[in-house]
Amino acid sequence: LTLFFFFFLFNSKFLIYACLLLFSVLLSLRLDDKIQWSYWAVFAPIWLWKLMVIVGASVGTGVWARNPQYRAEGETCVEFKAMLIAVGIHLLLLMFEVLVCDRIERGTHFWLLVFMPLFFVSPVSVAACVWGFRHDRSLELEILCSVNILQFIFIALRLDEIIRWPWLVVCVPLWILMSFLCLVVLYYIVWSVLFLRSMDVIAEQRRTHITMAVSWMTIVVPLLTFEILLVHRLDGHNSFSFIPIFVPLWLSLITLMATTFGQKGGNH
């Protein structure tokens, strides 16, 4: 049970953001030819992330199988179903990542085939979101996968040159999503200003809203900057190396890592 509670209480979001940060650093170095590693090695942080998911799910399934009393507890059943849904989504993502590495290294099949697991992830994530809202679950990954189905399709079509739009146009679904996130940032900024000017709000609430506003701003603004720089690089409008292009993304990921401290662990 000690191993079970380790995975149950483990700060999974911190691990995910740390793996993404390390992966983005390795990817930028590889794209700039600073390192000559195989892409299978560049993706090592992603493999670590998926390995932890599989190990955690195996431990959870073992504990569930060996303790029949858990099946009679409603909340525990919800936890187990949530774990199965999360593992299913992660396995589809793992399949996509393996196909990406294989396509980059060998270049023998269409990108539409590579993106096929993501096309399955999106409807599964929509169903997971419906279930998760009913059971008050954390849904960041599921929401991210479900709202980006159109973006996945556009990227696959562009990589296969079935469409020849500029990357600025290909990423229109992404710009719509980022516009929504910018509105969220604006919302927190406005409320923070109102709370600062109000004498009826306690100091702790003011600090909370200011912290949220600063956090969202430090996540969204650098992320948007990274996306704009990358799209302009792909369209040939700038000749920056990839390392400075990725710097804003690293700032966003470091901020996300900082926001995970004190949050609920693993499967919640």
Protein architecture, described:
The protein is mainly alpha-helical. It folds into 2 domains: about 1-165, no CATH class; about 165-265. Helices cover about 80% and strands about 0% of the residues. It contains 13 helices and no strands. The protein has helices at about 1-10, 10-30, 40, 45-65, 75-105, 110-115, 115-135, 140-145, 150-160, 165-170, 170-195, 205-235, 240-260. Helix 1 packs across helix 4. The chain is globular, with a radius of gyration of 21 Å. The two termini are about 20 Å apart. The model has no long low-confidence stretch (mean pLDDT about 85).
Q: What is the topology?
A:
Layout: H1 2-9, H2 12-31, H3 39-42, H4 44-66, H5 74-106, H6 111-114, H7 116-134, H8 140-147, H9 149-159, H10 167-170, H11 172-197, H12 203-234, H13 242-259
Helix pairs in contact: 1-4, 2-4, 2-13, 4-5, 5-7, 7-8, 11-12, 12-13
Keywords: Membrane, Transmembrane, Transmembrane helix
Organism: Mesembrinibis cayennensis
Transmembrane segments: 6-27, 39-60, 80-100, 112-133, 139-159, 166-190, 210-230, 242-262
